[in-house]
Amino acid sequence: MTSFLQQLFNGLVSGSFYALLALGLAVIFGMLRVVNFAHGALYMLGAFGAVVLGDSAGLGFWWALLLVPAALAVAGMAMERLLVQRLTALDPLYNFLLTFGIALVCQDLLRMKYGSHSQPYDHAPFSGTVDLGLFDYPAYQVFVLAVSVAVCVAVWLLLTRTRIGTVVRASTERPELTRAFGIDTRRWVTPVFGFGVALAGLAGVLAAPMRAVNSDMGADLIITVFAVVVIGGLGSVFGSVIAGFAIGMLQALGNLYVPVLSQTSVYLLMAVVLLVRPAGLFGKEEHA
Amino acid sequence: MILGLMRRLGDRPAWMRWGLLAVGLAVAAILPWVLYPPVATDILCWGLFAVAFDLLLGHAGLLSFGHAAFWGGSAYVTGLIALHSGLPFYVAVLGGAVAAAVLALPIGYLAVRRSGIYFAMITLAFAQMVYFVANQWSAVTGGENGLQGIPRNLPGVDLSDAFTFYYAALPVVLLGLAAARRIVRSPFGRVTAAIRDNTDRVRALGYPADRYKLTVFTASAFLSGLAGGLFAVNHGFASLQEVDWTTSGKVVVMTVLGGIGTLWGSLVGAAAIVRLEDWLSTAGFEQTDLVTGGVFIVVVLLFRQGLWGTATRLLRPRPPAPPTPDPAEPADPDRTPHLTKR
Amino acid sequence: MKRRLTMGVAAAAVGTLLAACGAGGPGSGGGKISGGKLTLGVLTDLSGVYADLAGNGAVAAVQMAADDFQKKYGDKAVTKKIDVIKADHQNKPEVANTQAREMYERKGADALFDVPTSSAALAVQTVAAQQKKLYFNTGAATTELAGKSCNAYTYEWAYDSYMLAHGTGTQVTQQGGKNWYLIYPDYAFGQDMQAKFTPAIESAGGRVVAKDPTPFPSDNYSTFLLKAPTLNPKPDVLGALQAGGDLANVVKQYDQFKVKDKGVQLAIGLLFDSDIRAIGADKLAGTMFTTAWFWNLDDRSRAWAQRFQQRTGQLPTFDQAADYSAATAYLEAVQKAGTDKAESVSKVLNGMTFDDFFARNATVRTADHRVTHDAYLAKVKAPAQATQDGDYTELVRTIPAAQAFDKPSPDCHLG
């Protein structure tokens, strides 16, 4: 029983990364109908940001947690203004292709500068473990889970309790209707894009102390996150987040009980969801 | 839109069409004299792959980001047939292509339930699953060592020379290209193009749109499988690289560079990318992704018609602009190939 | 530093020389060296994960061998012109395949060196046999190269997965790590390593308590790290057979989960200097692994490493050292044979015993073209003990050449 609960906890920790990335993808998708292929590359940039701040500026983890997402938010807004916006009048697939190109370029630039091997990160906070009653767990990983849940809750409050949130949520879930009410959703596009990118950067900084930091770290992850948002339903921000945590747990249990399937389980689940609810568990039928 | 497509296909005068065909065949015939023969055969394989991909993207409006599953799946099956049966390589490649089509049925069945961006993500995810299976199942696929030593069997003919093999592979590619063209020109192709332009209207007319999509998806997978099988025989092995998502990305780049929906443009795009990569790696420049990614960004931002589309536009007087531009349409529809209904 | 190259059987050399002269048919023209020059090709990873391990350092090592050879023989050298060319295979087997053909066919390479990544090396091996030119593998670990896929034109110079697994598995068990928990990535390399670790541990009197395949690639190993101390009996050693980025994940998380404090030591299947740099020597201090060579081994090694560092600005890896060793042996063999014809050079190499700064007590096995030599069980130095930057490795004990490698595979039939 303890080991089962431990596995669920493991799953929540790895699900934290899926949830943060899926959340970023979903808010961007909500405003622009664009799926950002570069999201994995931006996560990778977030982790490299932490490494570079630590190595060259001597700034520790807490500074990175603050500065890197902010810097990536600015970069994301610039990316939206300079590139993505040029294509918003066209089929959203063009932006998918554009961001795919951006991902290739980002990865190769990092590879050129740092090589393909992993980078050490020496500024990990909390080296100890905490007693969770039934078992000990690394303090840092508990912290990651706490931050991720806090951010998801904060975004939920932002979306439900503020006017900005209402506009964003409305244009996510009922885009035509929102425009029909004469609400100008466009002024929120750039900040929301920047915010989504910042979430990817935040996930990257959180990953640096516990995962290998290298130029390919985002590429494999993003494909799993795509499956996550298909399962959750991209149109639903909360569906994406919940699917993120759920799939983290599914994989952890898979590791323990059916190791052969631990990697393919996500895709098998996606197949089942597509059969039963093509729009995703929490999504609504729409043309996207 | 349907009219636009028919214009695009039909407005070329007969002499020009025959002329293009003659030029194309002449280029194909002399290619291994001009280029290093193994590279020339690579161009054939990637060219057919990109045309098969454009059949789906340009002519049915479905962006698959998982075509490596079919190219690579066929590469493995072709290799297994050639290794274990000793049958002529044509049979092995055909077997690989059939396997790719069979693999496409369940993937396509699930993927066509969603369109647009979802279709892209779903195909990408399923292809990743194929990758994991190929990687784990190393007893059959060789895992990351690859399936090595695939022979070029053909009774009575020694194909060990890359130059000879090019001419042995050429007919397969030409047949594949002819099939792609036949599909686009057929009544079936007209319906898929109409589905691309307005799915709801086609459904309202009583066509089973999803079945049409699944059929064109499977056809595209079959042709991709022909290309992937030939590629495996050309190199003598099938590796995980063939089912990697970057291979799916590479064929997208080729088709977009050549020009979405132009069919023959994909050949040009494939040739350009293969030559570029060969040149970069020979010249000792290692950042291949940086260059292809950069070229791709520029094409998506500025030359969405691609090489072929831009060339034909320059060679042809522009048709008069529509009298009242529809604000929902792209700023310049003639410059931007139509992908899917918005 | 003097190289000693002792012939196994002197008579064989005389015979070879005669055979080589006899073989100089009409095709070989005036000189015995085709084209009047030798071309050594380095096909390597210049941009990917193995660029540090091999890469331009491998090119420099082969160039160094060519320069040393010319300095040694001067006017007596079999040719005055030795070119070293390089190409990038990007760790993709099809690129390796095309580049290898191109180097042999169009650029006149007489022999290829290096080629990290097993799939790429296997592809190059096939091309070498087709082109009837030599290939010296130093970068790829799969035993298939000298097993099922072996051919008469390929030599394995540095290491293989048997050497890694057998060394660590046997030696660590003999030193008291009786109970093992193995976690291996579920793909060919990991499956192969696991299959070699288990018998090594068991034949040394140890026991594999449990073994689990892990997803590849993966960034979460918490399942296995939590499981490790709870197994019954509790394992003394966690054998992590992951490589590269996955290995970095395992070690980072091993550290966070405090598995060491719970009495489970870490042993690693494949560890390169670049991995130690990536993960941090502090996290790895005390970790045992097997290596084919390391630069701080002894004075001979340090002397060569110093020359290499003067040239390249970096310390050599075992792969780069093996490239130098292989290129030198090849050039000496050409000198002896008096021709660059692969078959004749091969006759000189086969059965040769030698001893250089890289390969100690070495023999080129005739049966499968594997070069056997001493290997080393090593552990990672704590950063405080390091004498300089890049000094990561401490010798635990030398594994004699006869035990370091498996006996020739029955699957290997040199054509």
From TrEMBL, chain A:
The chain crosses the membrane at residues 12-30, 60-80, 92-110, 139-159, 188-209, 221-249, 256-276. GO terms for biological process: amino acid transport. Pfam families: BPD_transp_2. Keywords: Amino-acid transport, Cell membrane, Membrane, Transmembrane, Transmembrane helix, Transport. It is found in: Cell membrane. CDD domains: TM_PBP1_LivH_like. One of its GO terms (cellular component) is plasma membrane. InterPro entries: ABC_transp_permease, BCAA_transport_permease. It comes from the Bacteria. GO terms for molecular function: transmembrane transporter activity. It is a multi-pass membrane protein. Belongs to the binding-protein-dependent transport system permease family. LivHM subfamily. This is Branched-chain amino acid ABC transporter permease. It comes from Actinacidiphila cocklensis.
UniProtKB/TrEMBL annotation, chain B:
Residues 332-342 have a biased composition (Basic and acidic residues). It comes from the Bacteria. It is a multi-pass membrane protein. One of its GO terms (molecular function) is branched-chain amino acid transmembrane transporter activity. One of its GO terms (cellular component) is plasma membrane. It is found in: Cell membrane. It comes from Actinacidiphila cocklensis. The lineage of its organism: Bacteria, Bacillati, Actinomycetota, Actinomycetes, Kitasatosporales. Keywords: Cell membrane, Membrane, Transmembrane, Transmembrane helix. Residues 314-342 are annotated as: Disordered. This is Amino acid/amide ABC transporter membrane protein 2 (HAAT family). The keyword Membrane applies.
From TrEMBL, chain C:
PROSITE patterns: PROKAR_LIPOPROTEIN (PS51257). Residues 38-381 form the Leucine-binding protein domain. Keywords: Signal. InterPro entries: BCAA_transport, Leu-bd, Peripla_BP_I. Residues 1-19 form the signal peptide. Belongs to the leucine-binding protein family. This is Branched-chain amino acid ABC transporter substrate-binding protein.
